[in-house]
Amino acid sequence: MDADLVMPLKHPSTGKSRLRGAVAAQRHAELVLALACDTLAAVTSAAGIRRVLVVTSDPAALSELAGLGVELVTEPAGGGLNEALRHGAELVRADTPSGVVGALQADLPALRAVDLAQALSDAAGRRAVVVDRQGTGTTLLLSAPGEPLDPQFGPGSAALHQASGAIPLTRELPSLRSDVDTEDDLRHAAALGLGKRTAALLPAERAQLR
Length: 210
Fold this sequence. Notes:
By secondary structure, the chain is an alpha/beta fold. The chain has one domain: Spore Coat Polysaccharide Biosynthesis Protein SpsA, Chain A (Alpha-Beta Complex), CATH 3.90.550. The chain has 7 helices and 7 strands. A 7-stranded mixed sheet has the order 3-2-1-4-6-5-7, with helices on both faces. Helix 1 links the parallel strand 1 (3-9) and strand 2. It is globular, with a radius of gyration of 16 Å. It starts with a strand and ends in a 9-residue tail after the last helix. The model has no long low-confidence stretch (mean pLDDT 94).
């Protein structure tokens, strides 16, 4: 079943604080943006994805993302991650009230379109969650058709989403489970195979990732 995805993205200069030090300080924002670009490149080529909204505090600063075929919308003032996702879901629902809405993390630089398409197929219209490789976080949350997204991201989100009725998808889906918060996560994603933007950024920094 086709889905519309909402992706939250902090300004690259302030996002991914736990990843600071993975590259030179002056290139941190570039790395954060590269992670998002590679994620979106896979998303927009995946079967079953109809629309992608990126919710951010500063759409003008991320205008290059529009070239990937996504929409940029401004997040609510003073809201957090879940509020941003609810806002994006409401915008999608206004146009497709009976559709499936998903929330996807913006830090999946090894994402393969086939893994995302497989997750949509496995969900089969049910509220579903893809748990990260550590087993505690969420990389993808899908609503049932016409039902609330009800995002509960944050510490222990995998358990919270399952408690809210989301079915955990059990297929391996390695590239969809490998979000990047730390240098160890980045090494793991590199072993899977990074997208072009992240891979192009890292060669000069590779010694720091060993």
